[in-house]
């Protein structure tokens, strides 16, 4: 399914502080699994920051990346695998895949196909992508654009309330 700007009815802005808290919450969930991972595989680019936070919190020193591109701004297109995992052993049972968000599940499926035995965790998940991940921190609706802090500026501009006089305000 191709996403375009009109398919997003809501924005979910995430601050640096919130993203850090949510990434640490993901680390707690991962710790609770009592699994042992040898390495983290970050899905670049969005998974780089939570992977760094989780690597610190779980004391994992080996971090690698898979690089997959599918978005241009708010438009999702075809997947392009730019880089695979450098070293791959077994089925990847001791690998922990980290991403910021699972949306449609297309990227998640591509990573799962590369490393079938890995444990896959994301900070945020949408309903279409949820089956691809083992755990996540927060679910957002499919029609919501998650606005990550690296994609926005901090401003002191006036923000409209969600509801004004009985109508819902859609900001894009």
TrEMBL record:
- Gene3D superfamilies (UniProt xref): 3.40.50.2020
Phosphoribosyltransferase domain location: 16-151
UniProt KW keywords? Cell membrane, Glycosyltransferase, Magnesium, Membrane, Metal-binding, Purine salvage, Transferase
Question: What Gene Ontology terms describe what this protein does at the molecular function level?
Answer: metal ion binding; xanthine phosphoribosyltransferase activity
Biological process, per Gene Ontology: purine ribonucleoside salvage
One Pfam family hit: Pribosyltran
Give the NCBIfam families listed for this entry.
PRK09177.1
This protein is called what?
Xanthine phosphoribosyltransferase
């Amino acid at each position: 399914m191709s996403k375009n700007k009109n398919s997003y009815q809501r924005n979910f802005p995430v601050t640096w502080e919130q993203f850090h808290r949510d990434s640490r919450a993901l680390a707690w969930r991962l710790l609770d699994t009592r699994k042992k991972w040898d390495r983290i595989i970050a899905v670049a680019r969005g998974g780089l920051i939570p992977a760094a936070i989780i690597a610190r919190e779980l004391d994992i020193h080996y971090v690698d990346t898979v690089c997959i591109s599918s978005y241009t701004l708010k438009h999702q297109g075809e997947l392009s695998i730019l880089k695979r995992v450098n070293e791959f052993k077994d089925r990847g049972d001791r690998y922990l895949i980290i991403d910021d968000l699972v949306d449609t599940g297309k990227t998640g499926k591509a990573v799962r196909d590369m490393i079938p035995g890995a444990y896959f965790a994301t900070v945020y998940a949408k309903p279409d992508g949820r089956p691809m991940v083992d755990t996540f921190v927060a679910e957002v609706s499919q029609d919501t654009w998650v606005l990550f802090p690296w994609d926005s500026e901090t401003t002191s501009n006036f923000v409209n309330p969600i509801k004004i006089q009985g109508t819902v305000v859609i900001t894009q």
